[in-house]
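Fig. S4 source data, part A: sequence.
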Amino acid sequence: MKYFKTCITIIVFLIFLIPTAWSSPYLTPEPPLASQMNWDLSPSGMLRISYDLDFNGKADFHTLRVVVTSFYSDQTVMEIGANFPNLPVFYTPYESQSFYYVATAQPLFYSFDVDEDGTWDIMYKDISKDSVNGNEFFYESPSGMFTNDFNNF
C-alpha cells in the first residue's frame, strides 16, 4: 500500500510539471462572436476579430481565423449562412451587393494586448483549431514583452 501511495504521489507531481496552455497567462476561451468589438482582414489574409475583455473600450483580445472563401453576392447574410452551416460569416455591405467572408469555425491564433497599446503582446497557436482546451502553444511575442523562454514568465 505504501508503494502504491508513493507511485501515485510521483505521478501527480509529474503531471503538474508538464507546462500546458492552461497554465499560461492570459489564455482564455474566445467570447461569443456577438460580443466582438470589430473585425478586419489582416495583411496575411486571415480574419481578425477583436474583443474587449475588461470592458474599458479598448481591444485587448484578438482571434485570427483562416478565411475559407470570400465572394460578392446579392443574397442576405441568412441565406449565405445557410449555405455554410457552423461557419461564421462576415460581410461588408455595398450598394447592390455585399462582400462575404466565410471563416473557419475555430480560431488558429489567439492574441492578447496586455497593456492595450495596440501592439499584440503574446500569441498562442492552436493547430487543431479545436478551441481552448490545453493543446495551444506559445507562438510569439510581437511586442517583445514576453521572451521565448516563456516558462520563466
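Fig. S4 source data, part B ends here. The two ends are 39 Å apart (CA to CA).
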